Amino acid sequence: MRSRMLKRLASATSSLLTAAGIMLPAVAGSQPAAAQTSDLVSKTAFRVCADPANLPMSDREGAGYENKIAELMASKLGLPLEYTWFPMATGFVRKTLQANACDVVIGFAQGDEMVLNTNHYYTSAYVLIAASGGPLAGVTTLADPLLKDKRIGIVAGTPPATHMARNGLLLKAKGYHLMVDRRYEDPADDMLKDLESGALDAAILWGPIGGPLVKASHPKLKATPLLAESTPPRLFYRITMGVRQGEKVWERKLNSLIRRNQSEINAILADAGVPLLNDMGTGPLETPK
After folding, report:
1. Which residues form the signal peptide (predicted)?
2. Is 184 within a domain?
């Protein structure tokens, strides 16, 4: 499923976000000191680990917006782009980044202790998706009375489910799986199909998944960021790139690349349909005209 970010955000209620629903392996703290330096970073290629079936973010054909960001970073470094493909499932970081199969994962929630985070390169939020022009199209909080008795699709275990429970919205809700292999199951697509068929009144997805899906394939739907929640957990997150713990030199190099190429990164994300917010998650990102 387009659950790369959803998996990372599943533990947001405890403020620590994980990449694939797993704990930091104990072996990471016992590696030799040399493994905690930039000596492991390739000098001959920009090596990225990614899910080969995770659109709109990434796929083996390079059609995802994270693929395009990786291409941009590689071009600025003057290096060829090389991928290690691995499904976003238990063991992803351990079997890829920590195993030195790559040097960076594009798209990691800030604060995830599985990796060393770069500076964030965008902020986004969960979105409520409903019929464009319909009564729910402008809803910005799950406390809105308009949602009472509505059939809402939600990915189980994600932060909005806490708000739905608080507001009595789970009785008629339909849950969709969080931890899946996208090669065999696609909850985000299933949810939007249910919405368009009338089986649901609204759907809730992580914005960088829902926004691009709506823009690309669902013109009769509208994705509205949930920005007006007054109680925890928050529904907006800052997104970084993830590198190996201890790779401070590499982290600083990527931070410099992000800073110098932020406008191009923003353009890639906006073109894909990712809802871009200001750093505080209170409104749309204002970009220079």
Report:
1. 1-28
2. yes
Structure token pair of residue 27? 């072996």
Does residue 117 lie within any of the structural domains? yes
Find the domain containing 200 and state its range.
126-225
At 189, the amino acid letter reads D
Q: Angle CA(138)–CA(57)–CA(89) in degrees, nearest 5? A: 110
Is 201 a domain residue?
yes
Tokens of 140: 């910005």
**Please, what is the Cα angle at 285 between 266 and 141, to 5 degrees?**
125
Check whether residue 24 and residue 108 sit in a common domain: yes
- CATH number of domain containing 135: 3.40.190.10
CA distance 1 to 23: 21
Structure tokens at 247: 């790779």
Total-model pTM: 0.86
> pLDDT of the chain along its 289 residues, tens only?
444 444 444 433 333 333 322 222 222 333 433 344 457 899 999 999 999 999 999 999 999 999 999 999 999 999 999 999 998 877 889 999 999 999 999 998 888 788 999 999 999 999 999 999 999 998 999 999 999 999 999 999 899 999 999 999 999 999 998 877 677 778 899 999 999 999 999 999 999 999 999 999 999 999 999 999 989 999 999 999 999 999 999 999 999 999 999 999 999 999 999 999 999 988 988 865 5
